[in-house]
Write a sequence for this structure.
């Protein structure tokens, strides 16, 4: 067993948009395998927008990445050697693991996945954290009702593409907002969205949303924040729900930007706006995963991935999220 492996660590903290120079790749030696530990070979890495927040030295719901220490996140890996009765060679597992080609994990930090349900990488997307985020955010905060209008921003991303389909399943009119004509076409033609707006090319986003939502917006599933959300919220209906899932448009801001003050409109229209972190629903993950897996197996829930090949491409893939390089879940395959 080769004990030397490649690792990608945080080299410096970004100011504004992260750059490749914020990361460093090095070789590290792994210790001997102890009791109840498993030696893993990475197969797929997830890159996610929340990782940008962890690059800052700031208090948040997850601790910051440490300088000189590996970045970590969702990984799918194969068991190479096991000192645990719960895992055997060639099992496929997932867990929050370091950005390393090989690593040693405690048995309690990983779970086996069932690749007869779907391809292994889906457990980082529709059957993993992003899928659960779409499901719980929409169902428990959005509470979609037949005939309502749902707008989702970041519509072609890992979370958004699931939100749109779930809203359709619940009888809603679904309007997506995404950043390229290719994404617009895909969401309309393959994922059943009723209308999709390219926020980068449309000249008046607020007006485009008014036209796409003649009965106003009953649920806004917000993945991006910023000016996109200002335009959607200007079209909000009475008794609407705003699901605050992500604010990627602001993750690289160096100061809090000034926006329109929309609270009087939220007040007079009795709108609920609620933020959430997916771990709030941890106790219900089993039920959510089962439901999502069933829809995927029945062909009711489709998925899309952008797979970047090569361990060394991890930092570039992460930065690509901020350029809209991905359609569906951004994955790095080793
Ligand atoms: N609350 C939670 O627990 C939780 C869990 C998971 C994810 N999230 C959040 O949900 C959002 C979506 O996550 P995801 O994993 O599905 O990512 P994603 O949508 O797959 O990838 C990010 C996408 O954001 C869009 N984007 C990038 N910069 C933007 C900007 N300045 N303005 C508008 N759009 C921009 C890009 O698409 P375009 O081409 O359309 O611009 C890009 O493809 C993120 O904000 C993330 O932080 C929250």
């Amino acid at each position: 067993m080769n004990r030397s492996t490649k690792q990608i660590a945080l080299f410096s903290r970004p100011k504004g948009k992260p750059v490749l120079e914020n990361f460093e790749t090095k070789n590290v030696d792994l210790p001997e395998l102890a009791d109840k530990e498993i030696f893993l070979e990475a197969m797929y890495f997830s890159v996610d927008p929340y990782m940008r927040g962890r690059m800052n030295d700031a208090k948040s719901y997850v601790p910051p990445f440490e300088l000189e220490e590996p970045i970590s996140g969702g990984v799918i890996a194969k068991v190479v050697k096991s000192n645990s009765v719960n895992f055997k060679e060639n099992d496929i597992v997932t867990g929050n693991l370091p950005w390393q080609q090989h690593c040693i994990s405690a048995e309690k930090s990983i779970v086996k996945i069932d690749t007869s349900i779907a391809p292994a990488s889906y457990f980082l997307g529709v059957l993993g954290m992003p899928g659960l985020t779409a499901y719980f955010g929409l169902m428990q905060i959005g509470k979609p009702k037949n005939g309502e209008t749902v707008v989702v921003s970041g519509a072609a991303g890992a979370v958004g593409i699931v939100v749109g389909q779930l809203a359709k399943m619940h009888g809603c009119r679904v309007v997506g907002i995404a950043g390229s004509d290719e994404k617009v076409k895909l969401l309309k033609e393959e994922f059943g969205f009723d209308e999709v707006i390219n926020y980068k090319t449309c000249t008046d986003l607020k007006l485009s949303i008014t036209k796409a939502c003649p009965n106003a917006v009953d649920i806004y599933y917000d993945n991006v924040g910023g000016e996109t959300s200002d335009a959607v919220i200007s079209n909000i209906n009475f008794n609407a729900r705003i699901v605050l899932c992500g604010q990627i448009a602001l993750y690289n801001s160096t100061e809090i930007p000034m926006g329109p003050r929309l609270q009087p409109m939220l007040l007079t229209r009795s709108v609920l706006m609620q933020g959430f972190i997916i771990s709030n629903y941890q106790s219900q993950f089993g039920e959510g995963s089962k439901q999502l897996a069933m829809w995927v197996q029945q062909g009711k829930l489709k998925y899309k991935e952008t797979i970047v090949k090569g361990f060394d491409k991890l930092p570039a893939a992460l930065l690509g999220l901020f350029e809209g390089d991905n359609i569906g879940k951004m994955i790095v395959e080793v």
The first helix runs from residue 50 to 54. The chain has nine helices and 15 strands.
